[in-house]
Write a structure and sequence with these properties.
With 468 residues, this protein is mostly beta strands. 3% of the residues lie in helices and 44% in strands. A seven-stranded mixed sheet has the order 22-31-30-24-28-26-27, with no helix packed on it. Strands 18-14-15-12-17-20 form a six-stranded antiparallel sheet, with no helix packed on it. Strands 2-9-8-4-6 form a five-stranded mixed sheet, covered by helices on one side. A hairpin with a 6-residue loop joins strand 14 and strand 15. The radius of gyration is 32 Å and the shape is flat.
């Protein structure tokens, strides 16, 4: 049962305190069975929302019988008319005429200790003009015997300042070398006029802007391969108003595959520079144009999913592939010999990427080494994880530790930066001791990089042991 309903007596005590009914309202010896004083209306006490971060909210309304006998006929009135000031998309139970006042009749039986759900009060996308306000929803329940039992909840809309709400088109799959439009926009979710805002874009390695606005700075990050573009847009920007701008064309790089765009907008002092933090490698835009914002006249291309917080992002899925090829080895020697081997994974391109979520279901890693029978690993790379079994497992099953010898399987992650670049080779060096005087045995090496690999055959290679 719902956790809130299990604690219903405590909720009702709080409601009684709020409504001034006092302890006598819940004492069985003083409450007529089947009367209104046996009823409780259960809702959340308050809801705090942010217009930019919530596409809507749902509050459920319940009635409960705190007496010992069933109540067979309950009427509930839900007055949510004030929510018309919050949203143009409001649903109220038992409201066929759409006036946001629901009249629910003939509810029952309501059994002792078994709450009955009346329905949901749903609020859709919030109005910018609702920022900084709060509205009350009032509920009354009655059996027709005495004054109704009432409760209420509050819907409050916080001020959050400027928030990004427009960005890259959805469901666009460009090819390498192409360009695509990159619009932008924000809404001022505050009651104050803003003199200036700082607009920030974070572009992953395969993306770049074709225009170099002179009121922007470019801040490349060597470690992550991303580039942040920060621009100063001058206002004034009115309260509750929305504004749009155009970043121009977004260029798709030759090696791009799974790319990301991060968006951010914040209020800034009118006299401050475009960059929030000044860096030595900042590049000032040298183009002829400035990035400017104009009042919004059309519909918003919204990128905000449910419950997103503050900053916004979108993905650019590029029509590209990456061919990963694995290199095995041959181990030659006699029993007792310790033989070094080098196992490799190379990206032949043309795309560059990191591991995908669907490739992280097991422990294969960028390279998985299944040790041949008849040999023992006496030295392993310090960043490779040793396992007791020769096949990848999920979770920590068979986990031995980083760089441990005597494993039967090893998972080695990608080491050189966030993207596995074209032409890069991951080299993993092991030392194997030949134990048994068998003629030969075979293990294998493979990679988890399989998504959009046009040649899966070269993702696995043999590791052979040959004894004279």
């Amino acid at each position: 049962m719902n956790r809130r309903l299990r604690n219903l007596p405590h909720v009702f005590l709080a409601a009684c305190a709020l409504l001034g009914t006092g302890p006598a309202a819940i004492a069985d010896t003083e409450r007529p069975e089947g009367s209104n004083r046996s009823l409780a209306v259960v809702v959340r006490s308050s809801i705090i929302m942010q217009a930019a971060n919530h596409p809507g909210y749902t509050e459920d309304v319940w009635v409960s019988n705190l007496g010992r006998r069933d109540i067979t006929d309950v009427s509930v009135t839900i007055d949510a008319s004030a929510l018309g000031n919050v949203s143009d998309d409001v649903d109220v139970p038992c409201d066929p005429d759409g006036d946001l006042v629901g009249e629910c009749r003939g509810i029952g039986p309501v059994r002792s200790g078994v709450p009955v759900k009346i329905g949901d009060v749903r609020t859709g996308g919030l109005k910018a003009s609702a920022v900084g306000t709060y509205q009350m929803v009032r509920i009354a329940a009655t059996t027709g015997d005495g004054p109704p039992v009432t409760n209420r909840f509050t819907v409050a809309v916080d001020e959050t300042g400027p928030e990004f709400d427009r960005g890259a088109p959805k469901r666009v799959r460009p090819a390498p070398g192409e360009t695509m439009p990159l619009p932008g926009g924000f809404t001022n979710y505050s009651r104050s006029t803003l003199e200036a805002v700082r607009v920030s874009l974070t572009l992953s390695q395969g993306l770049s802007l074709t225009e170099r606005f002179r009121n922007c700075v470019w801040q490349p990050d060597v470690e992550t391969g991303t580039t942040r573009v920060e621009c100063k847009l001058k206002g004034p920007f009115a309260p509750y108003a929305s504004y749009d701008f155009d970043f121009g064309a977004l260029r798709i790089g030759a090696h791009a595959m799974y790319e990301d765009i991060g968006y951010r907008v914040r209020e800034m002092p009118a006299g401050a520079p475009p960059g929030e933090i000044q860096r030595e490698n900042d590049e000032q835009g040298d183009g002829p144009n400035e990035l400017t914002a104009v009042p919004r006249t059309g519909a918003t291309t919204s990128l905000r999913p449910d419950d997103v917080a503050y900053d916004l992002s979108s993905t650019v899925d590029v029509r590209n592939t990456a061919d990963f090829v694995v290199g095995g080895a041959t181990v030659r020697g006699r029993p007792g010999d310790v033989v070094p081997v080098e196992l490799t994974v190379r990206n032949l391109g043309p795309g560059e990427r990191d591991e995908r979520p669907e490739e992280q279901t097991g422990n294969a890693g960028a390279l998985w080494f299944s040790v041949p029978s008849g040999v023992t690993v006496v030295h392993a790379p310090p960043h490779c994880v040793a396992y007791e079994k020769s096949r990848p497992a999920s979770g920590l099953k068979g986990f031995m530790g980083l760089g441990k010898p005597k494993g039967r399987g090893y998972s080695c992650g990608h080491q050189a930066g966030p993207q596995f670049q074209v032409g890069h080779v991951e080299r993993q060096r092991f030392e194997l001791r030949i134990d048994k005087p068998a003629k030969s045995s075979t293990g294998y090496v493979t990679t988890m990089y399989r998504v959009r690999d046009p040649r899966l055959r070269n993702n696995t290679a043999r590791v052979e042991v040959k004894v004279p």
